[in-house]
Amino acid sequence: MEAKNAGKKISDIKIDIAFTSVLIRAKETLRIVLEEALQPNVPIESHKDLNERHYGALQGLNKAETIKKYGEAQVKIWRRSYDIQPPNQITEFNPDGRSESLKDTAARTIPYFNKHILPHLVNGKNILISAHGNSLRAIVMELDKLTKKEVLELNIANGIPIIYEFENVAVKLKRIIIFALNCSSSIKRHIRIIAPTI
Predict the structure, then answer these.
(1) 55: annotated binding-site residue?
(2) Are strands 17-20 and 127-130 parallel, antiparallel or unpaired?
(3) Structure pTM?
């Protein structure tokens, strides 16, 4: 239901290209949003660099189970620090057994954004990103130039579209819409790009 509402909220914006992670729920959310926005044929690029942060040994545990196993203080450190990783665990999607901190997530998400998404913005395209809380926190950190401390306080609400409007002296107005999964309202942010890095 939330993805349908999100699609209706952005239906007045012509989306030129959409980006998502390789995870099923992000892809499915994007499909629903585009259908509700009456734009089901938008080109989509999926990439693992937009995947959610990998929580290692915590993957698959809910918050209560994690607290019971490791203690509330330790769980808070893992969830709310910038550069401390949870314990490692080998999985199908993480064969080297590495878990990620927010810093690690940003280290893969921001370069992907700069190399693959930003050029579309520079060319005047409207972009939609359907991803996950931590990968989006990393992108918002970059766009809003947040400090490490500020990004730790940033919560990306599930499904609420965040609409950035970019301006450049040489490029017409364009938009990027990012949201985590599910939806209810929208937030607009304006950014002036003077000399975008590509």
Answers:
(1) yes
(2) parallel
(3) 0.82
